[in-house]
Design brief:
210 residues; 69% helix; mainly alpha; two-stranded antiparallel sheet; 6 helices
Amino acid sequence: MASGSTKSSKNWPVLGRFWTVPNILTMSRLVLAGVITYLILSDGSLIWLFVLLAVAMATDWFDGQIARWSHTVSEWGKVLDPLVDKMSAGVVVLALVITGQLPAWFLMVVAGRDLLIFLGGVFLARKTGRIAISIWSGKVAVTAVAITVLAALLRADPPVLNFCVWASTVLLAYSYLRYLVRFFRFLSYGQVPHLELDEEEPEKDPAEVA
């Protein structure tokens, strides 16, 4: 894992302002995820499901853009954005498992990976006073999960859905291994400048977090 924030005197990172427009936009995805989950469980309109999914994906892009445009990038944003994404994905996958559209073990993979990454981030924040940023392979894995969710909602043929599930699983596992590598490298070397950015995107602004 990598990191990039100001260290506080108590070794916890200073997160800055919480109530900013980008952070509110980020948290709105939790509300959208709740409505999406309800529609899945109640066999609601597919049209509304896809509209809400599109809005949720749009907020995921706009929150970071607005933060940069308005110069309100904060450490809270680096915490909330990946946390909200993980929680939203978890509840939606849970709903699809309950309705029998996805296997239960897939939920365990998604939730287990996200929990371990979250705990690792908390550990690094406490140890270093810095917020761990997400990596490129994690974004790819989340995108794969989103495609799998869409395939399940569209009642894709079993071979297609199975391919999506297993491809997502492989990408989730790969991204987790990348997090592990960065986690142990950071513990071994401490604040190494080249670990401040995602190794796979060396020119990326540290504020661009997933």
